[in-house]
Specification:
11-stranded antiparallel sheet; about 210 residues; globular; 4 helices; alpha+beta; about 25% helix
Length: about 210
Amino acid sequence: MTEPAPKIVDWASLPADIEVRSLWTTLHDADLVACVSSRLERTIRLSFDLSHLVEGEGELPCEVLLRDVTSARATVSVPWPGECGNTKGLSRAEESRVIAEYQAKWREESLGWDDFEAAINGGSLWTLDAELATGPGSQALKLEGTLEREGHEDRYGGVTIAFASFEITVEGATTTLDAFDRLGAAHWEAFRAGRRALRDSTEPES
């Protein structure tokens, strides 16, 4: 009896039973500052700046090496050429509604991978969300954020990459995905603790 072909994990047609893991904890607010792919070696190397996890002016370089890449796609959100409604004098809720109605008319367009790499290597992607889908023999990474380039209007963009395996290094040392998650978890716990301390210090005494 012929063995069934393994499911290919790809965001374009993600199987319903594939596990999806959020990478928001560590990659939210990270800057993707370089993207280098090799079609010959079938790899993509993503370089992140995780300095948002470090107090003060410290740096925290991170690289994610994706191996045996089978697809790489990039999209960018293009504004509707019409005008946004007048928001002058509106309440915050009404202003948000008008802006949301305008942004709903924007169009997602494909961006050539070479163009995406050139844009990243000449700017950065301010990462706002990240997810990893894992199957028995393949995986897929999804990144979304603001594509920031000097001399160009910032645009919201997304990246999806399908691959077989990956390796994460932080400050040159290989790390596990769980340890990678803990980097961000410690940051956000400290952030929440600071917010609680600030709130407690400004509350009036009874």
